[in-house]
Design a protein that fits this description.
heterodimer; A: about 300 residues; alpha/beta; Rossmann fold; 11 helices; about 35% helix; B: about 240 residues; mainly alpha
Chain lengths: ~300, ~240
């Protein structure tokens, strides 16, 4: 659905996007993750056909964004970072305008459906200028979806709205992933982890890592780390006991217990050995590094 | 088709905007007062001027055209809707054309209201109808040209005040070309300068009751060239 090949954008001497290559399949939610100024917005602007790439090419549903721009643009729904509004139009008028401009045949039905989907029907006659920020965000999503495009591109859709609305927007994005290809940018890592099937981490215009959020985490931290709390054993003995378990790589005390690095799942073994030695196992829990750690690590390297 | 959708939205915007009503009110008050005094004078001094409204408006469009058009692109830029428009499956030319036609349509409605003065004249004297019609055709074309210039400057900035100010200066220069022509001793140079000015194709022809093909071609040419420039300016947003 989205195929980008070596997308590059140069602003004068500054390289904003440097040879980004990726594909997104139908029904996939791809997160574009990166710090501010990493080139997320520029990448999206090239994919939506707003600006031509300096080098490289991109296709939306098989249509080149430069060669066959109008056809490509017909197949994209786009929500820029700052929701673009016409303050003096009504909610219905606004969505209808975009529906017609994008060639929707039964505009009224399409507008009704999309307003219902985003709970805007009771506000349809209000002026856009009077909507709250969260409602404007929903209106922005409604606008991006009204022509039912196969590809939806959302630039930081959860910035500047309250937590309840953030959850709503994330749920909408998840729901979209069922039948649309969604490209979604954010600099909030937990969000990418929750919402996306696949994450592209970009920094300074380059993709520095990509994969499933869980894979990315594993990639940086192979094996598993457990936090184990034991009662009734001296520190030294407990450490020896833990270290003697096959598969355990490293043990160190941390806080009230021990941090155990292991190649495979050693939880059962830990529990039975501790009981056999006559101690009590109080706690055993996995420590997962969040995507945040992966991200910080990668950005630091880059 | 896309132009038509954009045209409809622009016309809707004019009718939703208090500012556009204010401009219409200003135009009607101004022309109304001048018409009344001209009518009063016509009872004693001289016959009523058939092309009064076109003559008054041709000067005041230097101010009204920028005010009517400053919003067209500047606001879209400020609100970010221009980016969305440019990612919709429509060409720049249909955006520009739709917006221009919207502004021209609103202007046409505004001057159509002043036809009422002609009906008042008709009911009390025998005005030169042909002269008035010629004046109005001229004003309509002249207005289109000034609106196109106003829109061009609106496309250059996201600040409406700056857009209005720059287009007022540009229109004033275009209007003054008429008088600038008088400064040249060489008659041929003077004629060229004069024929590039808005006044030169209006005050001595349309406003005097003469419809000439060259004047129609001049205004149509200005509109075409300026719209083309506007399209290029809008396109340049893509590479910034």
């Amino acid at each position: 659905m989205i195929e980008a090949k070596g997308l590059t954008k140069r602003y004068g001497d500054r390289l904003a996007v440097d040879g980004i290559t990726f594909t997104a399949k139908q029904g996939e939610i791809v997160g574009l993750l990166g710090p501010n100024g990493a080139g997320k917005t520029t990448t999206m602007r090239m994919l939506t056909g707003f600006m031509p790439p300096t080098e490289g090419s991109a296709k939306i549903a098989g249509h080149d964004v430069v060669e066959d721009s109008l056809e490509a643009r017909r197949r994209v729904g786009y929500l820029p970072e700052r929701v673009p509004i016409y303050p003096d139009m009504t909610v219905r008028g606004y969505v209808t305008f975009w529906a017609k401009l994008r060639g929707v045949h039964h505009a009224k039905a399409a507008v009704d459906a999309v307003l219902a989907r985003f709970n805007l029907l009771d506000r349809q006659n209000q002026l856009v200028r009077h909507l709250s920020k969260g409602l404007k965000q929903r209106l922005g999503l409604a606008q991006a979806l009204v022509h039912n495009p196969p590809v939806i591109i959302l630039d930081e859709p959860t910035i500047g709205i309250d937590p309840q609305q953030v959850i709503e927007v994330r749920e909408s994005v998840r729901a979209l992933g069922k039948d649309h290809t969604v490209l979604f940018s954010t600099h909030i890592l937990s969000e990418a982890e929750q919402v996306c099937d696949r994450v592209l981490i970009i920094n300074k215009g380059k993709i520095i890592a990509q994969g499933k959020p869980s894979d990315l985490r594993r990639q940086l931290q192979p094996g598993s780390t457990l936090h184990v709390v034991i009662r009734g054993a001296e520190k030294k003995k407990a450490r020896e006991l833990l270290a003697s378990i096959p598969g355990v790589v490293h043990v160190e005390s941390s806080g009230d217990g021990y941090q155990v690095n292991a190649k495979d799942d050693v939880r059962g073994e830990i529990s039975s050995r501790i009981s056999a030695a006559g101690y009590t196992l109080l706690e055993i829990r996995p420590i997962t590094s969040s995507l945040e750690d992966v991200f910080l690590e990668l950005v630091k390297e880059g | 088709m896309a132009s038509w959708i954009i045209f409809r939205r622009e016309v809707g915007q004019y009718f939703a905007s208090p500012f556009a009503y204010l401009i219409a009110a200003a135009v009607l008050v101004l022309t109304g007062v001048l018409f009344t005094s001209d009518l009063y004078g016509s009872m004693t001094v001289k016959p009523a001027e058939p092309a009064l409204v076109p003559l008054v408006m041709s000067f005041t469009m230097i101010f009204f055209a920028p005010l009517l058009t400053m919003r067209l692109f500047a606001e879209e830029r400020r609100e970010g809707t221009l980016e969305l428009l440019m990612t919709a499956p429509v060409s720049e030319s249909s955006i520009v054309f739709g917006k221009f036609m919207g502004a021209w349509f609103y202007f046409s409605l505004m001057i159509a209201i002043t036809f009422s003065y002609q009906f008042i004249l008709l009911s009390i004297t025998q005005p030169d109808i042909g002269h008035a019609i010629s004046g109005y055709i001229g004003l309509w074309l002249y207005g289109g040209a000034t609106l196109a210039v106003g829109m061009l400057f609106s496309a250059m900035t996201e600040n409406q005040i700056v857009a209005a100010f720059l287009s007022m200066i540009a229109l004033f220069l275009l209007w003054m070309g008429d008088q600038a022509g008088d400064l040249f001793a060489n008659i041929d140079v003077a004629r060229v300068v004069r024929s590039l000015s808005l006044q030169g194709h209006f005050s001595t022809s349309f406003a005097a009751g003469i419809i000439r093909a060259e004047d129609i071609a001049f205004f149509a040419g200005i509109i075409t060239v300026v719209l083309f420039m506007t399209i290029r300016v809008v396109e340049s947003n893509r590479i910034r």
